[in-house]
Design a protein that fits this description.
By secondary structure, the chain is mainly α. It has eight helices and four strands. A hairpin with a 2-residue loop joins β3 (213-216) and β4. The two termini are 21 Å apart. The model is unreliable at 1-23 (pLDDT under 50).
Length: 229
């Protein structure tokens, strides 16, 4: 449930074009590390030593390159609001930091960690409900999965949120596999999209599924044979 944000819209609206036309007190992005300019920014109420400022400048510089792009004090302040005190990007959907996938954390996020039982309960019940509603087929337009993930992220420390999301996705997958197996056990001819035999999932509990799990690297798998959709 991690997100990589496209900042192109931000720069189009905030920083304009290569010229300084229409800018308010234009500042050249490539000059933001200049000592005299930093003094000007401090006088405008910007803490140039803060992690928020450094993150904003890094982002602007990355997009500006050698294009001669301009910005202004208010634009810098607006961009700084998108980072927390540690300079970590704040996801606009959840209002939480620690959910941006970067080159630095892309590999380390794929870890299995301990996540709250309450969150696993939420995911199990939702997966079961939506599995029955869709006869084994997911509906990306109506699913409430993102609500469960967001609730999990709020219960998890910032530095563990990406790993928590990865772990939850593994539980979600094995819950689905258990429901598929149960549907097929009740009706060997069943396929995703066909009506599920009433009561087919009644004997499946979260505890019974998790008791059958084994950890394999960054994945969780059922000890019994997995059945894929």
């Amino acid at each position: 449930m991690s997100k990589i944000t496209d900042y192109s819209f931000l720069f189009q609206s905030m920083f304009g074009t290569k010229s300084n036309a229409g800018a308010v007190n234009p500042l050249k992005v490539s000059d933001l590390s200049n000592g005299s300019l930093r003094s000007q920014l401090k006088a405008a109420g910007i803490d140039t030593n803060s992690a928020q400022y450094k993150a904003a400048v890094k982002e602007m510089t990355k997009h500006a390159g050698s294009s001669g792009m301009f910005t202004n004090v208010q634009a810098i302040k607006n961009l700084m609001k998108q980072y927390d005190k540690d300079g970590d990007y704040i996801d606009p959907t959840t209002g939480l930091a620690g959910l941006l996938v970067t080159e630095e954390n892309a590999a380390s996020r794929k870890r299995i960690i301990s996540i709250p039982e309450s969150s696993r309960d939420e995911m199990f019940e939702l997966t079961k409900k939506e599995f029955l509603q869709g006869n084994g087929m997911g509906n990306g337009d109506t699913t409430k999965r993102s609500d469960v993930y967001t609730d999990l992220y709020r219960k998890t420390s910032k530095n563990e949120r990406l790993a928590a999301g990865h772990t939850m996705s593994q539980y979600e997958r094995v819950y689905t596999q258990a429901f598929i197996a149960a549907a097929k056990a009740a009706d060997p001819a069943w396929k995703a999209g066909k009506p599920i035999k009433p009561g087919a999932l009644d004997g499946i509990t979260r505890e019974s599924v998790e008791a059958d799990l084994k950890k394999s690297g960054s994945s969780l798998a059922r000890s019994s044979l997995d059945i894929q959709i």
